[in-house]
Structures are given as structure tokens and as C-alpha cells.
Amino acid sequence: GRSLLTMSRRSGKRSATKLREDEQPSKVVPPSPTPQKKKAKTESLAPVFVFAHGAGAGSSHPWMQGWKKRLESVGDVRTFDYPYMASGRKAPDRLPKLIAAHIEEVKSARAEYPSRPIVLIGKSMGSRVGCHVSLEYEDVAGVVCMGYPLRGTNGALRDEVLLEMTKPLLLIQGTRDNLCPLPELKKVCKKMKNRNELFVVETGDHSLVVTKKHVVTQDESDEQLLQHIKQFVATL
User: Which of 13, 45, 78, 92 sits at 20 to 30 Å (Cα–Cα) from 98?
Assistant: First the structure.
């Protein structure tokens, strides 16, 4: 441009030599930083899953560990045990204590990953507690429920927290899940004010286990489910 030309005229031969030296590296240097930048950006946006167990089995259960491994293909995964499970008791803590313990785990995840989106994911009871946590702890990107227990053991409908939620929600339910009749859940979904999605696992039970006569294998069903979770998280 004009500035280089003016410089060249003032400095004579020496500046012309400098210009030629500057021209040579420009063809080699720029490509290398580009992939590093993209990689850093991808890593910084990868979600952190805080994964809560159901009432009957803790985070070390094969079902939990299997899903932890699958979810690690999408982001980092933190599992934990609620206080009653950690102390070896069978009966779950009362809801306020479960919520408090769950929030502490989320805060710990946020301290470890200051800028990445946090997604609450849980099995059965853990998913229900996660819904409550999303109302009390603002710094949550979304919630994934794997087998939400819409009906309690006493038959009571537990839809209040779903109707109060504001965070995006993905509900994953099996057609054979006795704790969550699909017709009832679909009615609740229509009443909810947040963005919500329902993914139905054909022939799946409360643990999303499909029957042997189903058209796809368990591994194939789990892979389909994982891809849907991945798509949901990408929209958060």
C-alpha cells in the first residue's frame, strides 16, 4: 500500500530487503494457529453433566456407570451419591435435604468449570430432584430426566415442579414405565411453560431397558437416546 511504498522510498535498499524478508513467512505462519483456536472454543462450550442416581441404587451401579461412559462422549460427567446412599441407608432423605445436597454438587461443578454450561441429568428420583434444583439454582443450562417418576408409590401425581420449571427440559420415558403413564405425561407437557421435549423409548421400562422382541437391540436403543441427548444439549 501507500505506507509501505513511502517507507521504501525513505529507507532505500535496506527497507526493500526488510520487505522481502517479511513477505516470506506470511505464506507459512497463519495456518497453524487456526485449528488450535477452534479446538479451544469447542472445549470451552462442552457441557458438564451433573448426573444424579435414582432412589434404589447409587452412582456406582452398572446402569449409572454405563450411562456415565456414554455421556462422556458429549461432555464431562460428575456423578455423586445423596447423603442417605453415601451413609448406606436404604430410605431416601427428605426432598429438602436431597435438593440441598444436589445444589452443593452443582456449585462444586461450577467451581471446577467456571464458564461451561451445566446440564442436570438424573435417573428417576434424581431427575425429579434435578427439576427442583433448576428452580432454586439459576446457573443451569437445562435438565434431562431419564424416567421421571410422575406417579409416586402412593399413586399421587407429581407434576407441580414440572409446571413451575423455566429451564429447557428433555423427558426420556419408556412405554412400559409404570411410574410414568405416557398419556398423563403428555397432558402435563402441554401445560408446561418452559421449552420441553419428550423422547419415547418404545418397549422401554422405568430404566429404559427395551424388550428382547423390540426391533432394535439395547445398545442401538441407547445409542439413539444418546444422540437425542446430544442434539438437545447442542440447543442450550
Answer: 45
